[in-house]
Design goal:
The complex is a heterodimer. Chain A is of the alpha/beta class. The termini of chain A are far apart. Chain A contains 11 helices and 15 strands. The radius of gyration of chain A is 22 Å and the shape is globular. The longest helix of chain A is centred in the last third of the chain and has 22 residues. In chain A, helix 6 runs parallel beside helix 8 and helix 7 runs parallel beside helix 9. By secondary structure, chain B is an alpha/beta fold. Chain B folds into 2 domains: 127 residues, Peroxisomal Thiolase, Chain A, domain 1; 224 residues, Peroxisomal Thiolase, Chain A, domain 1. Chain B has 14 helices and 11 strands. In chain B, strand 10 and strand 11 form a beta hairpin. The longest helix of chain B has 17 residues. The radius of gyration of chain B is 19 Å and the shape is globular. The two termini of chain B are 32 Å apart. Classes of the chains: A alpha/beta, B alpha/beta. At the A-B interface, strand 4, strand 5 and strand 6 of A face helix 4, helix 5, helix 6 and strand 5 of B.
Chain lengths: 413, 389
């Protein structure tokens, strides 16, 4: 049975915080194909291009025809839970403190037997839907959900180990001045976040939506300027121990390329906010989040970067902005490695141009801030770490995968 | 048609050695293997340089292999084997060594398995056990073999109606045997009630279904029968052997082992059959696997092991002497030595050298091995029929 998660009680300030115990261990290179699928939130298995057999665990050679041509492909994710067990005693501290822990053997409809983690709603003999998620150490994890559940299965204790559901958690949205930050607050309230801190820089300057933002219950505006180290450190010293999720919604979108720009001040401002801002955020909030990665149902769990998809390939029309996004992306990759031992996920959400004033001259399709905000929540509830939102972002992903060089030319044409 | 297999005429296994186990050891695998080899050589009345064949099995010898041990031990064998097959190592070492001696490639093959168990050895061994395990088992609760065999046991119970009490009978009777076997680490009497009341480890596996990891070593010598006789060494003849890897890969969950593929060959080559067997030594990492061996080796039909254990006394003095030293469940699991334990005990029994209860008039015995949960099932199976010389 699924255990109903209840709102966590107030912490005893005298009680010791449970520290994250990483479950390390090497994985094969072939298994990283599963990691890639899990990161993107899709279900794939290795399939032999010669004999079409699906196989698991990941191999380098097909066990049916001995070909070396195995590729990861979307596969039928359904199967039957043939046998299950409840591990009361594990050899690893990581699972000892999470005991009892259920696993089971699933016969996939597409052939392979998969040993999987079990959602609380799954029972032996039942049909299940297999999903690939990332575990606390960034490795791919097979998680069996009841076959009847939709895309958003009920949150439960096991699922929480693989997701970053904002329900019952306290979230910092870094920029409440913009439409994305405000949409984010709305989406997080819908998702049941316990408390939402909203960063506001230059509070003396009025901004659109300010009155509505300040009036919302459970929303606490805080002074936060990502371009100012002291501001970030002061904010972290006040609320750092209470932030479970950070959603970095800071934006700096200006049209223009590199050569035609007047000097470097625009580029400096973009890098200051997007790249160094992320660095300040990580230095201020990261160390304590990393300590709180196993702190119960409302443990610290995620840093979300909302990035322009042009971080992945420069769009000369917004050339300097693209470069700043790319720098932020590179920082986030470093942060992934630094956060991993603490069980904190760095979630990169790649968005196409938003339907906001800064992209006024760009033709549709564009992404409405509310759509992007809900996509961030969905990504937090999923088990991945790379998420693409909007038609343009999806188009980018497909073109990059097919031929990155072609995309470079197409964007410069 | 498959060509007829040659027998193992003229070869014996002798000089059974058990180095008493320890729960934890600060020594290395090299030390444990060295103790066994030393006991073997002195018992046989040989000099170390007489050992011209060496077969080694160990999980904790890394980074060394059998090769490195030759220099470490100061030996210069002309035949060398390293058998990394866990619980099947003993029988597989025996059948290879027997062929080497038979062909004249070596005169004296010392077969040794040994492992140490330092405080964190077992966890480290599990963590790095196999590539499939690293990718697809260990991160799933890190239950180790307990969790993998829990799934196999659950499936077996569902499929054939076996009950925990049936597994309990296997464990309790082995403990009875161990109480007479001085080297066993677990010699406190076990009752069926205590078995049933034990704490769950990975349901349906409970505490007394699990072996205790420990340090230890086992060894035996393979040589020509006439040589053994001349040296005054009591040996056993090898009537037949089988070996199989990754048998029945199509089975969803393991409910039979590769023995079932080769059992006809085993008895045909031996020239005896199951009812002629006086002692059975199974690989008992978990009682369900021992029961699978009853079935797959032909002592009862598939799915009927529960009824079999209900209708037989499995103690050394009972109607079906099984795991007469107490098996790994009571003696302890000293890594790869666990794959030798049954074979070494069977040599002792068939040569009248039992340390614990001697099975009266034992002439023919069967030992089987089972090794290496690479992903979701044990891959290696092997068995041998041995007879008093």
């Amino acid at each position: 049975m699924t255990e109903q998660l209840s709102r966590p009680t107030r912490r005893n300030p005298l009680a010791r915080t449970r520290l994250p115990v990483p479950l390390g261990g090497p994985r094969s290179r072939a298994a990283q194909g599963l990691t890639q699928a899990a990161a993107e939130g899709v279900f794939r298995l290795q399939v032999c291009t010669v004999c079409r057999a699906a196989t698991y665990p990941p191999r380098d050679v097909c066990p049916r025809c001995l070909s070396g041509e195995l590729v990861f492909e979307a596969c039928d994710p359904y199967g039957v839970l043939v046998a299950e067990t409840r591990i009361d005693i594990s050899g690893e501290a990581h699972f000892r403190e999470r005991a009892p822990w259920r696993i089971g053997s699933v016969r996939m409809d597409c052939g392979p037997m998969v040993v999987a983690h079990l959602h609380g709603g799954v029972a032996q003999g039942q049909r299940v839907r297999m999903t690939l998620m990332l575990d606390k150490t960034g490795g791919a994890a097979m998680v069996a959900l009841p076959a009847t559940y939709g895309d958003v299965p009920p949150d439960d204790r096991v699922l929480r180990e693989f997701t970053c559901d904002p329900k019952f958690r306290r979230v910092l949205v870094t920029d409440g001045r913009g439409s994305l930050g405000q949409a984010m607050v709305t989406a997080l309230r819908e998702a049941g976040a316990a408390e939402i801190f909203v960063g506001v820089a230059d509070g003396w300057k009025p901004f659109g939506g300010e009155a509505a933002l300040r009036a919302q219950a459970g929303v606490s505006p805080v002074v936060l300027d990502l371009t100012d180290t002291q501001s970030v450190m002061e904010c972290a010293s006040q609320i750092g121990g209470r932030v479970d999720i950070i959603v970095n919604t800071a934006e700096h979108v200006r049209a223009g390329g590199v050569m035609a720009a007047q000097g470097v001040s625009e580029a400096r401002a973009a890098l200051e906010l997007r790249s160094l801002g992320l660095m300040r955020l990580a230095q201020g909030f990261g160390p304590i989040m990393r300590m709180r990665g196993a702190d119960g149902v409302d443990s610290a769990c995620a840093l979300v970067n909302v990035l322009a998809v042009h971080a992945l390939m420069n769009w000369p029309e917004f050339g300097v902005a693209s470069a700043a996004e790319a720098a932020a992306l590179s920082m986030s990759q470093c942060l992934r490695a630094e956060f991993r031992g603490g069980g904190i996920r760095v979630l990169n959400v790649f968005a196409g141009p938003q339907d906001t004033e800064w992209f006024q001259t760009v033709p549709a399709p564009k992404v409405a801030p509310m759509v992007l905000a809900r996509a961030v929540v969905a990504a937090l509830r999923g088990g991945g770490e790379d998420c693409f939102v909007g038609d343009v972002a999806e188009d980018y992903r497909a073109r990059l995968a097919a031929n990155a060089k072609a995309l470079e030319r197409e964007l410069g044409a | 048609m498959r060509s007829r297999r040659a027998g193992y005429e003229g070869v014996v296994a002798c000089v059974p050695v058990t180095v008493p186990y320890q729960r934890y050891s600060i020594q290395s695998a090299h030390w444990w293997i060295g103790r066994a080899l030393h006991t073997l050589v002195t018992t046989a009345g040989l000099e170390p340089r007489d050992i011209d064949g060496l077969s080694i099995s160990s999980f904790t010898l890394g980074p060394d292999t059998a090769m490195g041990l030759t220099q470490h031990f100061g030996l210069s064998p002309r035949w060398l084997d390293h058998v990394p097959m866990g619980g099947a190592s003993g029988v597989i070492a025996l059948r290879r060594a027997a062929r080497a001696v038979q062909a004249g490639d070596a005169e004296f093959v010392a077969c040794v398995a040994g492992d140490t168990n330092q405080v964190d050895t077992f966890r480290k061994t599990l963590q790095g056990f196999s590539r499939f395990s690293q990718d697809a088992v260990y991160p799933y609760g890190a239950g180790g073999p307990n969790a993998s065999f829990a799934l196999i046991t659950r499936h077996y119970m569902d499929r054939f109606g076996a009950k925990r009490e049936d597994f309990g009978r296997v464990c309790v009777s082995q403990r009875d045997n161990a109480m007479q076997f001085a080297p066993a680490l677990l010699r406190k009497q076990l009752t069926l009630d205590a078995y049933m009341a034990a704490r769950p480890i990975a349901d349906p596996i409970h505490l007394f279904d699990c072996v205790m990891p420990c340090a230890g070593a086992e060894a035996f010598l393979v040589c020509r029968a006439e040589t053994a006789t001349a040296m005054g060494l009591a040996g056993v003849r090898v009537l037949s052997t089988i070996e199989r890897h990754n048998g029945f890969p199509e089975d969803e969950i393991q409910f039979r082992g590769g023995w079932a593929m080769d059992v006809d060959d085993l008895w045909a080559m031996a020239g005896v059959d199951a009812k002629d067997v006086d002692i059975l030594e199974t690989y008992d990492d978990y009682p369900v696997i021992a029961m699978m061996q009853f079935e797959d080796l032909g002592f009862c039909r598939k799915g009927e092991a529960a009824a079999f254990v209900q209708s037989h006394d499995l103690t050394a003095s009972g109607s079906f002497p099984h795991n007469t030293s107490g098996g790994q469940l009571s003696v302890g699991q000293a890594g790869a030595a666990g794959g030798y334990l049954g074979l070494v005990e069977l040599i002792r029994q068939l040569t009248g050298q039992a340390i614990g209860v001697q099975v009266a008039g034992a002439r023919v015995g069967v030992v089987s091995g089972f090794g290496m949960i690479n992903y979701d099932r044990g891959l290696a199976t092997a068995a041998a029929v041995l007879a008093a010389a």
